[in-house]
Design goal:
Elements (H helix, E strand, L loop, with lengths): L8 E7 L5 H18 L5 E3 L4 E2 L2 H13 L4 E6 L5 H10 L4 E6 L14 H14 L11 E2 L1 H21 L2 E7 L13 H5 L3 E6 H10 L6 H12 L9 H18 L5 E5 L5 H6 L4 H9 L4 E2 L4 H14 L3 E8 L3 H7 L11 E6 L12 E4 L1 H4 L8 E7 L3 E10 L5 E10 L9 E6 L3 H10 L6 E5 L4 H10 L7 E3 L15
Helix pairs in contact: 1-5, 2-3, 3-4, 5-12, 5-16, 8-9, 9-11
């Protein structure tokens, strides 16, 4: 995965001058030692500067962690802490930040050894709000060295996503296909998030593709594809064009990402794409996503933004799927009922033509795209990647701007069931607890498009914190509520 930050958290211990600074120093040292014993020590940097109600100490700490290459900050209240200088540190640090606090250590040392960081965290949160500074504060932010080490480790995926967004450029090739208003959303929120966007015509892309005809790198790229596809290479005659297209996109990224470090692509794939390029781009999209460069279908800008966030959080391949079709009742009765603890309405099928990476398919074949071939010659619809999605835990999620420019998101954890789909495309049988209610009262009620991003694992906790951090109102973050918690618009008499 080549397209995301490596997070290094600067751990800065803070101390109020009416408390012993030795408390913060010893507790900070114990915290960093506990982290190194349990996790990768290179994730963190122990700042030797202790802030004692001094703005000069704050400046020295800021310079030290910058010099050490830290792109994330952990303000650690070893005792009550100096609410002014510690929040000034967070204000002036350009990157994701968190606040945590030290718990008291022993009933035998509650006089000289009492730090009152439990109280100091309240003042820290108040001052952060006064300064309009965003910071991640864990659910229970007070703990001993081992507890706080775990909190910092849980912060890493959140920090990766926040830092990645601040350095992301989305490259789109459009416009969206006709009748795809669902994927249309204002780009203003991208700028609010610090994301750059470069919008291009598909004609620009077509010109660049034609200029890559005969590229000397095509044979090597074809060989890569042949090795990846193996026996699933059902349309070898299209590989040279697919290789040419992949090189076009990679070269475009190199030439156009400018000062940004990370890139995601919202690509065009129909209706004129097939007839002009002579193939469908699905397999190439799957390969770039497998490299950590998410590519959304149908110029879905917020779809590829969502994929990028999931890539950073999971450090793994993600995909983008249609929340597509119901599971037939006979399939449910034969393969799910009594074998898995899901109601019929908890199940659905997630599908897209062929953009899911081979690493996330139980089997795969590169062939032609059936839906497109219903209206076009089959030979120009070649290049899709088909197969059943691997069973296991997943998180379905999306970040979206509404038509009136409000940020909205949803997160739902579930799984892909080990059930043969008996269908086509990149597809899986999904199960999410209370999916039927979530479908009605979040996805439909909140007017979400049919595309959802999929991370392969349960990452709901981190994604929820990312969405909060970047400014999504908690009332606008939907999730699959258990049956005991009704949705605001849910009929209580049903």
């Amino acid at each position: 995965m080549i397209n995301m930050p490596k997070v290094k958290v600067g751990v800065v211990g803070v101390s109020r001058d009416c408390f012993p600074a030795s408390l913060t120093i010893s507790r900070r040292e114990a915290l960093c030692k506990a982290y190194a014993a349990k996790y990768d020590a290179s994730d963190i940097y122990e700042c030797p500067v202790t802030i004692i109600e001094s703005e000069i100490d704050m400046v020295n700490a800021l310079e030290d962690i910058k010099k050490a290459g830290c792109n994330a900050l952990c303000v650690y209240l070893g005792n009550f802490g100096p609410e002014i200088s510690e929040t000034l540190l967070a204000k002036h640090f350009e990157g994701p930040k968190m606040f945590i606090a030290a718990a008291e250590e022993s009933q035998n040392d509650l006089v000289g050894g009492r730090g009152d960081a439990y109280c100091g965290m309240l003042n820290a949160s108040y001052n952060l709000k006064l300064r309009n500074v965003k910071a991640y504060i864990p659910e229970y932010p007070v703990g001993d060295a081992e507890d706080c080490a775990d909190m910092i480790h849980e912060f890493l995926p959140i920090a990766r996503a926040i830092d990645g967004l601040s350095k992301l450029k989305i490259i789109s090739f459009g416009p969206r296909p006709m009748n795809f208003l669902a994927c249309n959303a204002p780009i203003k929120q991208l700028y609010n998030l610090g994301v750059e966007i470069e919008e291009n015509s598909e004609l620009d892309l077509f010109e660049a593709f034609n200029k890559h005809a005969g590229d000397e790198r095509i044979p090597a790229k074809v060989k890569e594809m042949e090795e990846e596809l193996g026996a699933g290479n059902k349309k070898p005659e299209v590989l040279a064009k697919l290789a040419q297209y992949e090189l076009t996109l990679l070269d475009w990224i190199d030439a156009h990402k400018g000062y940004r470090e990370y890139v995601a692509i919202a690509g065009k794939c129909w209706p004129a794409f097939q007839t002009q390029f002579g193939f469908v781009p699905c397999y190439v999209n799957s390969r770039l996503t497998g490299m950590g460069i998410p590519v959304s279908c149908e110029v879905d800008i917020y779809g590829c933004l969502s994929e990028f966030i999931g890539t950073c959080v999971s450090e793994d391949v993600v995909t983008l799927l249609d929340i597509n079709n119901s599971v037939p009742k006979d399939m449910y009765k034969e393969s799910i009922e009594g074998k898995f603890d899901y109601k019929f309405t908890d199940t659905f099928m997630g599908f897209h033509c062929g953009n899911t990476c081979t690493k996330k398919l139980s089997f795969h074949e590169m062939k032609y795209q059936l839906i497109m071939a219903r209206n076009l010659p089959e030979e120009v619809t070649q290049g899709t990647l088909e197969g059943d999605i691997i069973p296991g835990n997943i998180t379905f999620y999306r970040l979206q701007s509404t038509a009136d420019n409000i940020l909205r998101a949803y997160v739902a954890e579930g799984e892909v069931l080990p059930v043969a789909t008996k269908s086509f495309g990149g597809i899986g049988v999904f199960a999410i607890p209370e999916m039927g209610r979530f479908y009605r009262h979040v996805l439909i009620q909140k007017n979400y498009p049919h595309h959802g991003a999929v991370a392969f694992g349960h990452y709901g906790k981190a994604l929820y914190e990312v969405f909060k951090y970047i400014g999504v109102d908690v009332d606008e973050i939907g999730y699959n509520r258990p049956a005991s918690i009704p949705y605001p618009d849910e009929n209580p008499f049903k």
